[in-house]
Amino acid sequence: MLQIGYRQCENDCCVYVRSLDDESFIFLLLYVDDMLIASNHLRDVNELKSLLSKEFEMKDLGPAKKILRMEIHKDRKSRRLWLS
After folding, report:
1. 45 CB burial (10 A radius; 0-12, 13-18, 19+)
2. Is it the case that residue 72 has pLDDT exceeding 90?
3. What's this model's pTM, rounded to 2 decimal places?
4. pLDDT, tens only, 29-62
5. Alpha helices (H) along the chain
6. Cβ 44 vs Cβ 20: under 8 Å
7. Radius of gyration over every alpha carbon of the chain, rounded to an integer in angstroms
8. Sheet harboring 80-83: ordered strands across?
9. Phi/psi at 68 (nearest 5 deg)?
């Protein structure tokens, strides 16, 4: 991840972040064999998934509903996200 422009979060070694051209960010959260990618732009998410799938065997499970036993609830209209 470091070789492709991501930096590792100082507070959590499982989180990588990269600043994008429009001053937004893309986040990659890795824990053993679970991965979550988050960004304002779907094209950046798809680009990263494509790049990673060339290096590793992986499955795309679609939009995240759960990670590490936490449920993810989204309200796109109000632009809110909850974890429980």
Report:
1. middle
2. yes
3. 0.83
4. 999 888 999 998 999 999 999 999 999 899 988 8
5. 42-55
6. yes
7. 13
8. 66-67, 70-75, 80-83
9. 50, 45
